[in-house]
Amino acid sequence: MIIAIDGPAASGKGTLARRIAQHLGLRHLDTGLLYRAVARDMRRQGGDLEDAEAAASAAKALDVASLEDPELRAPGLGDAASVVARHAKVRAQLLQLQRDFAHGSPPGAVLDGRDIGTVVCPDAVVKIYVTASAEVRAERRFRERVQRGDGATYEGVLADIRRRDERDAGRDAAPMRPAADAVLLDTSDLDIEAAFDQALGVILRKVGRLG
């Protein structure tokens, strides 16, 4: 069983995906970390994030074991990842890696990202598109950064969220959008427990119908 969970930044999709994978005993991949890792490696090499060829080379050389690197959660790296994710050659390099994970062993996986249900795993048994208003998502991300001691402002975080949304939805290669058969889950007014309950309900109903 492959479960695809897509959505914009700070929608709660990553937390949901981890909870669902743990609850169902499935493997989990946060595909956004792949693009963050490419951006991290390019920064370390002093490369230009807008250089598609250099970004593709970094993606080809990516060490999957480095996805545990705490630096991948650093402020600003998400925005850099959004830049390299626009490059079609980068996405092509990482596509097979994601599909290999989805169809790996033991069977069953939860993948979260922005194009899982549309491009990476269009055959996923369950597709959920998690969203929330830009203002709510900015408030969540702002609180996270304040707790980490980052010098962030709500207005700055909101501007970053909107910029990433525009970039991710407007790119030519695998733009962020719900799959035609995805279930929309708006978490604007939901805490993590309520969102988890609703997402799990979607999954169980879908699997029940298939059974």
Report what the structure shows:
The structure is a single chain. By secondary structure, this protein is of the alpha/beta class. It has helices at 13-24, 32-44, 52-60, 77-84, 88-102, 116-120, 134-147, 154-170, 192-210; strands spanning 2-6, 27-30, 109-113, 126-131, 183-186. 53% of the residues lie in helices and 11% in strands. A 5-stranded parallel β-sheet has the order 2-3-1-4-5, with helices on both faces. The mean pLDDT is 95.
List keywords for this structure.
53% helix; 9 helices; five-stranded parallel sheet; 211 residues
Number of helices: 9
The radius of gyration is 17 Å
Mean pLDDT: 95
Query: Could you give the count of β-strands?
Result: 5
Briefly note the structural class of the backbone. alpha/beta
Largest sheet geometry: 5 strands, parallel
